[in-house]
Amino acid sequence: MADWPGDFHHGKTPLVSAATPNMDLMASRGEAGLVRTIPEEMKPGSDVANMSLMGYDPHRYYSGRSPLEAASMGVDLLSGQVAYRLNLVFIEAAGGVTDPEAVMTSYSAGHISSDEARAIVEDLEKELGRPGRRFYPGVSYRHLLVLDGAPLSTAMTPPHDITGRPVGEYLPSGDGAADLLEIMRGAAPILEKHPVNSARVEKGLEPANSIWLWGQGKKPAMPLFRKEYGLSGAVISAVDLVKGLGRVIGMEVIDVPGATGYLDTNYEGKVAAAVDALGERDFVFVHVEAPDEAGHQGDLEAKLQAIEDFDARVVGPVLEQVKKHHSWSVMVVTDHSTPLSIMTHSSEPVPYAVLRSEDGGGESTGRVYSEVALADTDALPGGEALMRLFLGGG
Q1: Helix (H) or strand (E) holding 63
Q2: DSSP label at 161?
Q3: Domain 14-62+221-392 is of which CATH architecture?
Q4: pTM
Q5: Which of 40, 151, 162, 297 has a beta carbon 3.0–4.6 Å from 175's, enabling a disulfide?
Q6: How far is CA 13 from CA 229, 290, 308, 335, 372, in A?
Q7: Using CA atoms, how far apart are residues 108 and 9, in angstroms rounded to an integer?
Q8: Per-residue pLDDT tens digits for 291-316
Protein backbone atom coordinates (compact mmCIF):
# COMPACT_ATOMS: atom_id res chain seq x y z
CA MET A 1 0.00 0.00 0.00
CA ALA A 2 2.82 2.40 0.75
CA ASP A 3 3.98 4.79 -1.95
CA TRP A 4 5.81 8.05 -2.63
CA PRO A 5 4.25 11.52 -2.86
CA GLY A 6 4.27 12.46 -6.51
CA ASP A 7 2.41 13.69 -9.54
CA PHE A 8 -0.28 11.00 -9.51
CA HIS A 9 -2.77 12.64 -7.14
CA HIS A 10 -1.97 16.26 -6.29
CA GLY A 11 1.29 15.29 -4.63
CA LYS A 12 -0.42 12.90 -2.21
CA THR A 13 0.26 9.21 -1.75
CA PRO A 14 -2.61 6.77 -2.36
CA LEU A 15 -2.77 6.06 1.40
CA VAL A 16 -3.24 9.77 2.08
CA SER A 17 -5.88 10.11 -0.64
CA ALA A 18 -7.84 6.93 0.06
CA ALA A 19 -10.71 6.72 2.54
CA THR A 20 -9.36 4.46 5.31
CA PRO A 21 -11.46 5.09 8.45
CA ASN A 22 -10.66 1.73 10.04
CA MET A 23 -6.89 1.95 9.65
CA ASP A 24 -7.06 5.58 10.79
CA LEU A 25 -8.94 4.44 13.90
CA MET A 26 -6.16 1.96 14.65
CA ALA A 27 -3.48 4.61 14.22
CA SER A 28 -5.32 7.18 16.34
CA ARG A 29 -6.24 4.93 19.27
CA GLY A 30 -3.42 2.40 19.18
CA GLU A 31 0.30 2.41 18.53
CA ALA A 32 1.58 3.47 15.10
CA GLY A 33 4.91 4.10 13.44
CA LEU A 34 7.30 2.93 10.74
CA VAL A 35 9.24 -0.30 10.40
CA ARG A 36 12.19 -1.19 8.17
CA THR A 37 11.18 -4.49 6.55
CA ILE A 38 14.01 -4.51 3.98
CA PRO A 39 17.47 -4.88 5.57
CA GLU A 40 20.24 -2.75 4.16
CA GLU A 41 22.01 -4.28 1.16
CA MET A 42 19.04 -6.57 0.38
CA LYS A 43 16.72 -6.10 -2.58
CA PRO A 44 13.19 -4.90 -1.78
CA GLY A 45 11.29 -8.06 -2.62
CA SER A 46 8.03 -9.40 -1.20
CA ASP A 47 9.96 -12.48 -0.12
CA VAL A 48 12.40 -10.53 2.06
CA ALA A 49 9.70 -8.18 3.38
CA ASN A 50 7.18 -10.85 4.36
CA MET A 51 9.86 -13.00 5.96
CA SER A 52 10.75 -9.95 8.02
CA LEU A 53 7.11 -9.28 8.94
CA MET A 54 6.70 -12.86 10.12
CA GLY A 55 9.45 -12.13 12.60
CA TYR A 56 12.48 -13.71 10.91
CA ASP A 57 15.69 -11.87 10.04
CA PRO A 58 16.24 -12.23 6.27
CA HIS A 59 19.99 -11.85 6.77
CA ARG A 60 19.93 -15.16 8.65
CA TYR A 61 17.24 -17.15 6.86
CA TYR A 62 16.71 -15.92 3.30
CA SER A 63 17.77 -18.43 0.63
CA GLY A 64 15.77 -17.22 -2.37
CA ARG A 65 12.17 -16.57 -3.33
CA SER A 66 11.28 -19.64 -5.36
CA PRO A 67 12.07 -22.21 -2.64
CA LEU A 68 9.33 -20.61 -0.55
CA GLU A 69 6.90 -20.90 -3.43
CA ALA A 70 7.97 -24.51 -3.89
CA ALA A 71 7.08 -25.19 -0.26
CA SER A 72 3.60 -23.77 -0.87
CA MET A 73 3.12 -26.06 -3.86
CA GLY A 74 4.17 -29.10 -1.87
CA VAL A 75 7.41 -29.46 -3.84
CA ASP A 76 10.05 -30.71 -1.41
CA LEU A 77 13.39 -29.58 -2.79
CA LEU A 78 16.18 -32.10 -2.48
CA SER A 79 19.84 -31.38 -1.86
CA GLY A 80 21.35 -29.89 -5.01
CA GLN A 81 18.03 -28.80 -6.50
CA VAL A 82 17.42 -25.14 -7.39
CA ALA A 83 13.96 -23.62 -7.76
CA TYR A 84 13.14 -20.73 -10.10
CA ARG A 85 10.04 -18.55 -10.32
CA LEU A 86 8.54 -18.99 -13.77
CA ASN A 87 6.34 -16.08 -14.84
CA LEU A 88 4.04 -16.39 -17.80
CA VAL A 89 4.56 -13.04 -19.53
CA PHE A 90 3.58 -11.15 -22.67
CA ILE A 91 6.57 -9.84 -24.60
CA GLU A 92 6.07 -7.78 -27.75
CA ALA A 93 8.70 -8.82 -30.29
CA ALA A 94 8.88 -10.31 -33.75
CA GLY A 95 11.83 -12.50 -32.86
CA GLY A 96 10.80 -13.90 -29.49
CA VAL A 97 12.10 -13.40 -25.97
CA THR A 98 15.75 -12.99 -27.00
CA ASP A 99 15.02 -10.43 -29.73
CA PRO A 100 17.04 -7.27 -28.83
CA GLU A 101 13.91 -5.19 -29.50
CA ALA A 102 11.63 -7.37 -27.33
CA VAL A 103 9.68 -5.37 -24.72
CA MET A 104 8.24 -6.66 -21.43
CA THR A 105 4.65 -5.59 -21.96
CA SER A 106 2.98 -7.59 -19.18
CA TYR A 107 4.82 -9.43 -16.39
CA SER A 108 1.55 -11.32 -15.70
CA ALA A 109 0.32 -12.10 -19.23
CA GLY A 110 -2.66 -9.86 -18.54
CA HIS A 111 -3.26 -11.55 -15.16
CA ILE A 112 -3.93 -14.85 -16.85
CA SER A 113 -6.30 -17.10 -14.89
CA SER A 114 -5.03 -20.07 -12.91
CA ASP A 115 -7.00 -22.54 -15.05
CA GLU A 116 -5.57 -21.15 -18.29
CA ALA A 117 -2.07 -21.06 -16.86
CA ARG A 118 -2.25 -24.62 -15.53
CA ALA A 119 -3.01 -25.94 -19.01
CA ILE A 120 0.02 -24.10 -20.39
CA VAL A 121 2.47 -25.16 -17.67
CA GLU A 122 1.33 -28.78 -17.81
CA ASP A 123 2.09 -28.76 -21.53
CA LEU A 124 5.50 -27.20 -20.88
CA GLU A 125 6.19 -30.12 -18.55
CA LYS A 126 5.11 -32.62 -21.23
CA GLU A 127 7.25 -31.00 -23.94
CA LEU A 128 10.28 -29.74 -22.04
CA GLY A 129 10.27 -31.62 -18.73
CA ARG A 130 12.75 -34.42 -18.13
CA PRO A 131 14.72 -35.92 -15.23
CA GLY A 132 16.46 -33.04 -13.52
CA ARG A 133 14.07 -30.46 -15.06
CA ARG A 134 10.48 -30.12 -13.83
CA PHE A 135 7.73 -27.56 -14.36
CA TYR A 136 5.02 -27.04 -11.70
CA PRO A 137 1.82 -24.98 -12.12
CA GLY A 138 0.99 -22.37 -9.49
CA VAL A 139 -1.50 -19.49 -9.28
CA SER A 140 -2.30 -17.11 -12.17
CA TYR A 141 1.01 -16.10 -13.78
CA ARG A 142 3.24 -17.45 -10.97
CA HIS A 143 4.79 -20.90 -11.52
CA LEU A 144 7.85 -22.98 -10.74
CA LEU A 145 10.81 -24.57 -12.50
CA VAL A 146 13.11 -26.95 -10.60
CA LEU A 147 16.55 -27.92 -11.94
CA ASP A 148 19.09 -30.35 -10.57
CA GLY A 149 22.61 -29.09 -9.99
CA ALA A 150 22.09 -25.56 -11.29
CA PRO A 151 24.28 -22.69 -10.00
CA LEU A 152 22.84 -20.01 -7.74
CA SER A 153 24.99 -17.18 -9.07
CA THR A 154 23.14 -16.55 -12.36
CA ALA A 155 22.22 -12.86 -12.69
CA MET A 156 18.44 -12.57 -13.11
CA THR A 157 15.85 -9.77 -12.94
CA PRO A 158 12.19 -9.82 -11.79
CA PRO A 159 9.95 -9.10 -14.78
CA HIS A 160 7.83 -6.60 -12.83
CA ASP A 161 10.96 -4.44 -12.53
CA ILE A 162 11.22 -3.97 -16.30
CA THR A 163 7.65 -3.34 -17.48
CA GLY A 164 7.76 -1.38 -20.74
CA ARG A 165 11.51 -1.87 -21.20
CA PRO A 166 13.49 -3.85 -23.77
CA VAL A 167 14.38 -7.16 -22.14
CA GLY A 168 17.75 -7.75 -23.82
CA GLU A 169 19.99 -6.46 -21.04
CA TYR A 170 17.91 -8.19 -18.35
CA LEU A 171 18.01 -11.74 -19.68
CA PRO A 172 19.78 -14.34 -17.50
CA SER A 173 23.54 -13.89 -17.62
CA GLY A 174 26.62 -15.46 -16.12
CA ASP A 175 27.06 -18.98 -14.83
CA GLY A 176 24.14 -21.22 -15.86
CA ALA A 177 22.51 -18.64 -18.13
CA ALA A 178 22.90 -20.68 -21.33
CA ASP A 179 20.74 -23.50 -19.98
CA LEU A 180 18.04 -21.09 -18.80
CA LEU A 181 17.96 -19.25 -22.13
CA GLU A 182 17.63 -22.58 -23.91
CA ILE A 183 14.55 -23.36 -21.81
CA MET A 184 13.06 -19.92 -22.44
CA ARG A 185 13.60 -20.26 -26.19
CA GLY A 186 12.20 -23.78 -26.15
CA ALA A 187 9.00 -22.60 -24.48
CA ALA A 188 8.26 -19.92 -27.08
CA PRO A 189 6.98 -22.15 -29.94
CA ILE A 190 4.87 -24.17 -27.49
CA LEU A 191 3.23 -20.99 -26.20
CA GLU A 192 2.81 -19.49 -29.67
CA LYS A 193 0.55 -22.32 -30.86
CA HIS A 194 -1.11 -23.10 -27.54
CA PRO A 195 -4.94 -23.13 -27.71
CA VAL A 196 -5.20 -21.13 -24.49
CA ASN A 197 -3.30 -18.27 -26.10
CA SER A 198 -5.29 -18.55 -29.33
CA ALA A 199 -8.48 -18.16 -27.32
CA ARG A 200 -7.07 -15.21 -25.38
CA VAL A 201 -6.09 -13.40 -28.58
CA GLU A 202 -9.57 -13.96 -30.02
CA LYS A 203 -11.01 -12.31 -26.90
CA GLY A 204 -8.63 -9.35 -27.22
CA LEU A 205 -6.55 -10.46 -24.21
CA GLU A 206 -2.79 -10.53 -23.91
CA PRO A 207 -1.35 -13.99 -24.59
CA ALA A 208 1.25 -15.72 -22.44
CA ASN A 209 3.76 -15.85 -25.27
CA SER A 210 6.96 -16.24 -23.19
CA ILE A 211 8.25 -17.51 -19.89
CA TRP A 212 10.56 -15.49 -17.65
CA LEU A 213 12.80 -17.15 -15.07
CA TRP A 214 14.09 -15.46 -11.88
CA GLY A 215 14.21 -15.67 -8.06
CA GLN A 216 16.36 -18.81 -7.81
CA GLY A 217 17.26 -20.49 -4.53
CA LYS A 218 17.61 -23.66 -2.46
CA LYS A 219 15.47 -25.07 0.33
CA PRO A 220 15.53 -22.76 3.39
CA ALA A 221 16.08 -23.82 6.99
CA MET A 222 13.98 -21.75 9.43
CA PRO A 223 12.92 -22.44 13.03
CA LEU A 224 9.23 -23.04 13.65
CA PHE A 225 7.07 -20.08 14.65
CA ARG A 226 5.87 -21.92 17.75
CA LYS A 227 9.48 -22.42 18.85
CA GLU A 228 10.42 -18.79 18.18
CA TYR A 229 7.34 -17.08 19.58
CA GLY A 230 5.50 -19.71 21.63
CA LEU A 231 2.28 -19.43 19.62
CA SER A 232 0.36 -21.47 17.08
CA GLY A 233 -0.27 -19.70 13.78
CA ALA A 234 -2.03 -19.73 10.43
CA VAL A 235 -1.50 -17.98 7.09
CA ILE A 236 -4.17 -16.81 4.63
CA SER A 237 -3.01 -15.62 1.21
CA ALA A 238 -3.54 -16.09 -2.51
CA VAL A 239 0.21 -15.93 -3.12
CA ASP A 240 2.42 -19.03 -3.05
CA LEU A 241 5.34 -17.06 -1.66
CA VAL A 242 3.48 -16.14 1.54
CA LYS A 243 1.85 -19.56 1.87
CA GLY A 244 5.26 -21.15 1.45
CA LEU A 245 6.71 -18.99 4.21
CA GLY A 246 3.92 -20.16 6.47
CA ARG A 247 4.53 -23.82 5.67
CA VAL A 248 8.28 -23.57 6.25
CA ILE A 249 7.75 -22.15 9.76
CA GLY A 250 5.07 -24.68 10.65
CA MET A 251 1.94 -22.57 10.33
CA GLU A 252 -1.38 -23.90 9.09
CA VAL A 253 -1.96 -22.66 5.52
CA ILE A 254 -5.63 -21.93 4.88
CA ASP A 255 -6.78 -21.86 1.25
CA VAL A 256 -9.75 -19.58 0.57
CA PRO A 257 -11.84 -20.23 -2.56
CA GLY A 258 -11.84 -17.21 -4.84
CA ALA A 259 -8.63 -15.72 -3.44
CA THR A 260 -6.93 -14.38 -6.57
CA GLY A 261 -4.26 -11.92 -5.45
CA TYR A 262 -6.00 -9.07 -7.29
CA LEU A 263 -8.95 -6.66 -7.02
CA ASP A 264 -11.46 -9.48 -7.52
CA THR A 265 -10.16 -11.51 -4.57
CA ASN A 266 -12.54 -12.97 -1.99
CA TYR A 267 -12.04 -10.47 0.85
CA GLU A 268 -15.04 -11.73 2.82
CA GLY A 269 -13.81 -15.31 2.56
CA LYS A 270 -10.40 -14.31 3.92
CA VAL A 271 -11.98 -12.53 6.89
CA ALA A 272 -14.26 -15.48 7.66
CA ALA A 273 -11.32 -17.89 7.48
CA ALA A 274 -9.22 -15.67 9.75
CA VAL A 275 -11.97 -15.38 12.35
CA ASP A 276 -12.54 -19.14 12.30
CA ALA A 277 -8.80 -19.78 12.63
CA LEU A 278 -8.64 -17.61 15.75
CA GLY A 279 -10.94 -20.10 17.42
CA GLU A 280 -8.11 -22.65 17.35
CA ARG A 281 -4.94 -20.66 16.68
CA ASP A 282 -3.24 -17.84 18.57
CA PHE A 283 -2.04 -15.84 15.57
CA VAL A 284 -3.25 -15.34 11.98
CA PHE A 285 -1.30 -13.62 9.18
CA VAL A 286 -3.70 -12.35 6.47
CA HIS A 287 -2.02 -11.18 3.27
CA VAL A 288 -3.68 -9.10 0.53
CA GLU A 289 -1.82 -8.64 -2.75
CA ALA A 290 -4.05 -6.25 -4.72
CA PRO A 291 -2.36 -2.93 -3.75
CA ASP A 292 1.01 -4.32 -4.85
CA GLU A 293 -0.34 -5.47 -8.21
CA ALA A 294 -1.88 -2.04 -8.82
CA GLY A 295 1.45 -0.41 -8.00
CA HIS A 296 3.27 -2.63 -10.50
CA GLN A 297 0.79 -1.52 -13.14
CA GLY A 298 1.18 2.17 -12.30
CA ASP A 299 -2.61 2.32 -11.93
CA LEU A 300 -3.67 4.97 -9.40
CA GLU A 301 -7.39 4.19 -9.53
CA ALA A 302 -6.77 0.48 -9.01
CA LYS A 303 -4.47 1.19 -6.08
CA LEU A 304 -6.99 3.51 -4.44
CA GLN A 305 -9.69 0.87 -4.88
CA ALA A 306 -7.41 -1.85 -3.48
CA ILE A 307 -6.62 0.21 -0.38
CA GLU A 308 -10.23 1.24 0.25
CA ASP A 309 -11.48 -2.32 -0.30
CA PHE A 310 -8.88 -3.61 2.16
CA ASP A 311 -9.91 -1.07 4.78
CA ALA A 312 -13.66 -1.58 4.36
CA ARG A 313 -13.82 -5.30 3.62
CA VAL A 314 -10.95 -6.66 5.72
CA VAL A 315 -9.82 -4.29 8.48
CA GLY A 316 -13.28 -3.11 9.52
CA PRO A 317 -14.88 -6.58 9.70
CA VAL A 318 -11.85 -8.03 11.52
CA LEU A 319 -12.01 -5.29 14.16
CA GLU A 320 -15.68 -6.09 14.70
CA GLN A 321 -15.16 -9.83 14.90
CA VAL A 322 -12.23 -9.83 17.33
CA LYS A 323 -14.39 -8.08 19.90
CA LYS A 324 -15.87 -11.51 20.59
CA HIS A 325 -12.56 -12.41 22.25
CA HIS A 326 -11.73 -11.22 25.76
CA SER A 327 -8.23 -10.06 24.83
CA TRP A 328 -6.91 -9.38 21.35
CA SER A 329 -4.37 -7.46 19.26
CA VAL A 330 -4.71 -6.48 15.60
CA MET A 331 -1.94 -5.07 13.42
CA VAL A 332 -2.06 -3.62 9.94
CA VAL A 333 1.23 -3.15 8.09
CA THR A 334 2.52 -2.95 4.52
CA ASP A 335 5.31 -5.33 3.51
CA HIS A 336 7.09 -2.73 1.33
CA SER A 337 6.34 0.26 -0.87
CA THR A 338 5.38 -0.21 -4.52
CA PRO A 339 5.44 3.38 -5.83
CA LEU A 340 3.27 4.12 -8.84
CA SER A 341 6.00 6.30 -10.32
CA ILE A 342 8.51 3.44 -10.62
CA MET A 343 6.06 0.47 -10.78
CA THR A 344 8.30 -1.71 -8.62
CA HIS A 345 9.35 -2.11 -4.99
CA SER A 346 11.38 0.32 -2.88
CA SER A 347 13.22 -0.07 0.42
CA GLU A 348 12.18 2.77 2.74
CA PRO A 349 10.43 2.06 6.08
CA VAL A 350 6.68 1.40 5.88
CA PRO A 351 3.78 2.21 8.24
CA TYR A 352 2.22 -0.07 10.83
CA ALA A 353 -0.56 0.36 13.38
CA VAL A 354 -1.41 -1.89 16.34
CA LEU A 355 -4.71 -1.79 18.21
CA ARG A 356 -5.34 -3.88 21.32
CA SER A 357 -8.51 -4.74 23.24
CA GLU A 358 -7.54 -2.33 26.00
CA ASP A 359 -7.09 0.55 23.50
CA GLY A 360 -10.61 0.58 22.05
CA GLY A 361 -12.02 3.20 24.40
CA GLY A 362 -8.88 5.27 24.67
CA GLU A 363 -8.47 8.88 23.72
CA SER A 364 -7.82 9.56 20.05
CA THR A 365 -4.54 11.19 19.08
CA GLY A 366 -5.98 12.34 15.75
CA ARG A 367 -3.18 10.56 13.90
CA VAL A 368 -4.08 8.78 10.66
CA TYR A 369 -2.56 5.74 8.96
CA SER A 370 -0.16 6.71 6.19
CA GLU A 371 3.53 6.82 5.44
CA VAL A 372 3.31 10.63 5.45
CA ALA A 373 1.49 10.99 8.78
CA LEU A 374 3.97 8.65 10.49
CA ALA A 375 7.12 10.10 8.91
CA ASP A 376 8.12 11.81 12.16
CA THR A 377 8.39 8.52 14.08
CA ASP A 378 11.61 6.55 14.59
CA ALA A 379 11.48 3.43 12.44
CA LEU A 380 11.78 0.06 14.11
CA PRO A 381 14.93 -1.69 12.84
CA GLY A 382 13.20 -4.77 11.42
CA GLY A 383 10.25 -7.10 11.35
CA GLU A 384 11.49 -9.13 14.30
CA ALA A 385 11.30 -6.03 16.51
CA LEU A 386 7.81 -5.33 15.21
CA MET A 387 6.65 -8.88 15.86
CA ARG A 388 7.90 -8.79 19.42
CA LEU A 389 6.22 -5.40 19.95
CA PHE A 390 2.96 -6.77 18.55
CA LEU A 391 2.98 -10.00 20.54
CA GLY A 392 4.54 -8.69 23.71
CA GLY A 393 3.15 -5.20 23.89
CA GLY A 394 6.53 -3.49 23.93
Answers
A1: none
A2: G
A3: 3-Layer(aba) Sandwich (3.40)
A4: 0.85
A5: 151
A6: 35, 16, 13, 16, 8
A7: 26
A8: 999 999 999 999 999 999 999 999 99
